[in-house]
Amino acid sequence: MTTPAVGAALPGFLNENLVSILNGLAVGMLLFTMAVGLSLIFGLMDVLNLAHGAIFLLGGYVAYQVIVKEGQSWLVGVAVAVAFGAVAGLALGGILRPIRHRGHLDQALLTFGLAFVLADLATIFWGSDFQSIPSPVFLQRSVEVLGQFYPAYRLAVMGVGFALAVVVYLVVERTQVGAVLRAAVEDRAMVSALGINVGRVMLAVLALGTALAAFGGVIGAPILSLSPGVDAEVLILALIVIVIGGLGSIPGAFVGAIVIGQVQSLGIALVPQAAPFALFGAMVIVLAVRPEGLFGSR
Amino acid sequence: MRALAPGPARPLVQLAVVFLLVVAPLLLGDFRLFLLTEILIFGLFAASLDLLVGYTGLLSLGHAAYLGVGSYATALIAIHLTDNVFAGLAAGVASSCIVAAATGWLAVRTRGVYFLMLTLAFAQLLFTLAITWDSLTHGANGLPTPKPTLGPGDSGGALDGGTAFYYYALVAFLFGLGLLRAVVASPFGRALVGIRENESRMRSLGYATSRYKLAAFCLAGAVAGFAGSLTVQQSSFMSPSGVSFEVSALALIAVIIGGRATLVGAVLGSAFVFVIRDELSSAFNEHWRLVLGLVFIGVVYLLPRGISGLSARVGGLLTRRTERAAGEPA
Amino acid sequence: MDEPETTLTRRAILKRAGAAAALMSVPALPLGRLEDVAWGAARQSRPLRIGQLLTLSGPLGSVGADLQKGFVTYVRQNGSRLGGRKIQFFVEDDAGDPRTALQKAEKLVSEREVDIVTGVVPSNVAIALRDFFHSAKVPLIISQAAADELTRGESSPYIFRAAYTNYMIGASMGRWFYRNIAKDRVFTAAPNYSAGQEIMAGFVDTFQKAGGKIGGQVFPPFGTVTDYQPFLSQIQSARPSAVFAFFPGAEAIRFVRQYSEFGLKRSIPLHGAFITDPAPVLNAQGSAAQGVGTSAIWAAELKNQRNTRFLATYERLYGTGEPSTFAATGHNAAQLLDEALKSIQGDTSNKARFLKAMKNVGTFQTPSGIFTLDPKTQNPIRNFYLRQARFENGKWQNKLLSNLGSFRDPGK
Q: What is the ipTM of this complex?
């Protein structure tokens, strides 16, 4: 947004760090697909879904099965994985239902146990070796940006992430469905008094959130590769994103994702010595200044 | 908690358990005794986490940080200064208490998920520090440490061999657990439960809740550090994997499976986790996690008060039945 | 009471292992076959009890499994005996964790009463175990963990190595790199932990001795990097003539792929240690790994009689699929033990004599070429081979290019 002005003032800086900045955006957008669902689910249901990382990993594995093992196209892989993610979300809703009346702690704990179980089921089906999905053929090249090479696939991830952010934002802010959703976040009782089935809204958001996580698993697989442990790695990154941004806030998830993306790329490029501590250090600093995150209200 | 084993049975049960623990070396082989020692130490660590999770309602995902600080402090004292056990314990408790105070000061200002993430962040930062600060911690390779001794200097009786160390650990365990029980039974402990149930009400009643939470955090950290000292004294080794997320997660699982806000439950839960891991890992490799995960889910679903809650429920049923039986003629 | 109980437990374990094998999609270890090994024709009074302390779960799980497959292959080639003695295996998984490993070592020694232990995958596990084996006075043959210090300051008369030290891995590439790749402005890249630093120290040592000059070194943090781009940008802007890198497992996949994606591979040659090994890593890298040279102690194409037998037996036991270099070091460990036992007719009753036989086992031929146990360091003097990642016969493979020569650890 302010890039031209900054670019004019600091052409040398931009030139040197363009790849890092681009990459920060790409990584950030990948994180956003995870974080937005996590944040929405928390905002609406008060459930911290700690199985979100496992669904990311399983989504990646499902697409791996379809694309690499069955030899189907990328589109089919994405579709199957997203459908899987949505079904997983509905199933999660069913599993959480009997303990909805208990505190959010018990529900978070239940998803924590689920994460354990799902991760292990994944190793039973797909082993503990590394699996990877090659990026679509037309994206398997590097593009030259201002004299430096940048992988085309990551540009595509960035584009898809931005598009997703815009769509989610428009749906939540500008549509009827979004209005119901926002109202349900604010005051659940009022919305059900209006005759709207809040349970169904919650289920829909759960399914949407986990579908997005599975989608993230597919587009993340060519970058991160799939193996046990990736689930926890990505979950922690996404949690940091929504905590920095403020729980339940979509703009917060977006800004948090970009901040973490840039900390992980531009930050490390500028101050390599800080690399081991950058991620959690950034979070601690943000929470020290704003204990509810950047866009948090509660 | 009071209902753990109601009526006059409770002190009897306690006495029987302590008796069994005292005679355990006669009944168990070297390896089983080693395992039991580990369970006691980890159980104390889990009980310290219970003070936060169960009593104060603060879900920490990074409690291994304080265990780790205690372990490293004890290891470093043993290597560079003296291998006296008490010096090691003092160093472990003091350093973990200081680190808990420094990090807790920030953490208790936040709530819920923010608190959970901050504690996770502190633990991960310490983990990274342990890997990168090679000159102090010997990096990922870890620090082998000398066996602890009871007497002054290197001359005193070495706490070598399973049985001697077991009794040492048992005394330390009973001391630590007794301390925690005294704390939760005190007005301070009841204030913590009040904060868990309704923090704003406690505040309006005039309690400085942040200060209470910080004190609980430091105390839990110090006891975790105490357990950390014992851990390193048992295994004579410390490496960053002792501060890893897995350690924090296993302790949390132990607390939940055993039953929150009972202290004893955390110990029972630790025993359960260790036995599952040891018995199943030879046969199922890493799939013991699957079993543990399923048990964990089952407990969250069916036994919100954990294994110890189950025994209380059974106990409650029994007493109710006898009461009813006694009441019927009248 | 002791004997029948252990047998029962072991049977129970075998039974449960069968159940576990059915659960797992990963090809399970043929534990059923260990049964034959254990119950082979009786000659010596008591079978030799061998503890195998391996990482069988977690990210390093396949390494432990391969070590064991290699070990079992040798035993089977050798008529299910070592040094003429029947053997009995006790396998424990340490999950790559030092504390678990200590617990399992205690179990093997005090409960299973093993005569010797082999295995050990991660270096921190090996270092944690060092004092235990030293004071328990039980011989340990390390078949993988490569921490330098166990051959240097922390050596023990009870600890032997069948693989190599980290120093040797790096050192094997220095002279070759100087002669064939670049002479100055060379960059190194490795994760910032002990193995990364030790391998790079070995490389820098022999590279500089050959006359080379290092341009710079990057050490990204270990285990927490999801993306290497900032480090790659740092390398790129320094414009080095070539890069020597070491990364393990998932980190290797990401580093090598991103090295290619960000265009470094077009102008800056990449070679190193382990970055395209083992097969699943190379498969995940695909064309990004094309042409990358790495050093290893074994290659499938080595032309010698022992290698032919090793490959044939391995295939018979485990089906198709080439053994990994870890299977080769597992095989080395079994052979090292066998050669030492043969020199004392399999009699381990006198421990001092047994240790002396191990120490002075000398030189013998293995599938990976000539192998000498240096009696000073109890660590091998052995050949390293240059392999190059290539696409051949429809799959990605590390193909043998040349013999890098014989290397040893200086022991200091």
A: 0.84
